[in-house]
Amino acid sequence: MPRTPTPQPTLAVFLDIGDTLAAAVVHAGHLAALQVYPFVPEVLRRLRNGPGEASVAVGLISDTGHETAQHLAEVLAASGLADLVDASLCLFSSVEGLDKSRPELFSLAAARAGLSAARCLYVGEDAAERGVAAVAGFATSPHPLHALHLVESQALSPQHAHP
Fold it and tell me: pTM score > 0.85 for this model?
């Protein structure tokens, strides 16, 4: 079961799934499974624990084709990712009707976290998607380990964005 978001987070970290947290296994045009990279569970645990007094919410922003919310929940649970993220902060293009080419998806993510975009970090391997997140006011990171460094060193601020 996905964890409940921490009360009033001071920071939200949103991560892409495919090629950032896991390799997607696709069969007949549908997501069949996620092969989570070995370092990911520990990185997500450390992110959500946050540094010092910080309260960090961890969510997902992912383009998901035509997958249903129920199917995505099942795949996330089977991969072990569901237990490591805040269910209310999982934004999927097939559910939201927006994809990562639109700054509005990132603005929606910040609103769901109850934070300004400046207190949100988007983590994804795709430079164009990071650019869209930056337009929405998010700090960005190309890799979960880099994001963990930003959070743990308390160096996260918009000037540390990496488009």
Answer: yes
